[in-house]
Amino acid sequence: MAAEPEQNAAPAAAAQEVAVHIVYVDRPESADPEEFHLRTLTPVLGSEQKAKDAVLYHYKHAASGFSAKLTPQQVEELKKQPCVLQIVPSQTYQLHGPESGTHQGTTRTMGLM
């Protein structure tokens, strides 16, 4: 019987793995972005302090939203909020790889001009 709790513990631990997600919200123009983001996240995490601790960045200009450290279960709960438009996992892309400097004697550059 001792083997059963261990088997059940593995899926529970996997469900609690935290990853950074970007949460896009439909924020009223009159609402303060940071306060609105925290009010959106607080019911899911259980307290305003936990919401503050989870948020990594507030997006206020080109998009309205925030990035936060969330478990898969928290993501599912947050999706139920009426103001949440979309939640996507955060990804990092490298613009330049190990081959980006020179290629057969020519220099390749990428960037914004």
UniProtKB/TrEMBL annotation:
Residues 21-96 form the Inhibitor I9 domain. Residues 101-113 have a biased composition (Polar residues). Residues 94-113 are annotated as: Disordered. This is Pi starvation-induced protein. The lineage of its organism: Eukaryota, Viridiplantae, Streptophyta, Embryophyta, Tracheophyta.
